[in-house]
Amino acid sequence: MNEWEIAAVVLGFALLPCLAVCLLAEPRSGLVALQIGGVLTSTILMLLAEGFHRQPFVDLAVVFAPMALVGSLLFARLMERGL
Amino acid sequence: MSWRSVAAVVLLVAGGSLELLAVLGLCVMRDAYDRLHYLGAAGYGALLIGVAVVVRESFSIIGDKSLLVGAILVVSGPVLANTTARSFLVRDLGDWRGESGRRGDGS
User: Fold this and answer.
1) A49 contacts on B by Cβ (under 8 Å)
2) I need a labelling partner for B43 at 20 to 30 A (CA). Which of A7, A8, A78, B20 fits?
3) What is the pLDDT of residue B106?
């Protein structure tokens, strides 16, 4: 395992607290956890691309980062209306 | 070990630490408004890791796209935090300006 893969594994474990906040905390905190989880997931995909020297992973990150932004904005808008 | 590898590892550790700090803040803070502040820190962590990839790879396809992802996350973090806080205020108070905005309107 190189340093990029180790960092990807560490950040993968950091997704677990985000999941716990999503499931256990109030909905507003869950939305914030979802947003931070999106940033972590994009970063993990970058790290996997560098660690394995596989370009498709970073393509996934390029697509995922704007999609996570749009999804989070949509959730925020829905929550404004009392979701 | 070349200086590029050392610089890449330093940037990688700094970016990873920043993201772990954001997750720690998410878990420790009590209020959703407090937790929102850590969204921007996570974006800067991603940018540091993107820069680490560029330092290691130079401007290859993976390096360029990693830098692009980092830039997207840095720019979108404050936008997302402001929009989400506005939505929370509308949900809680009925108006994003809060109590002071209502007083300003004379209502």
Assistant:
1) 62, 65-66
2) A78
3) 43
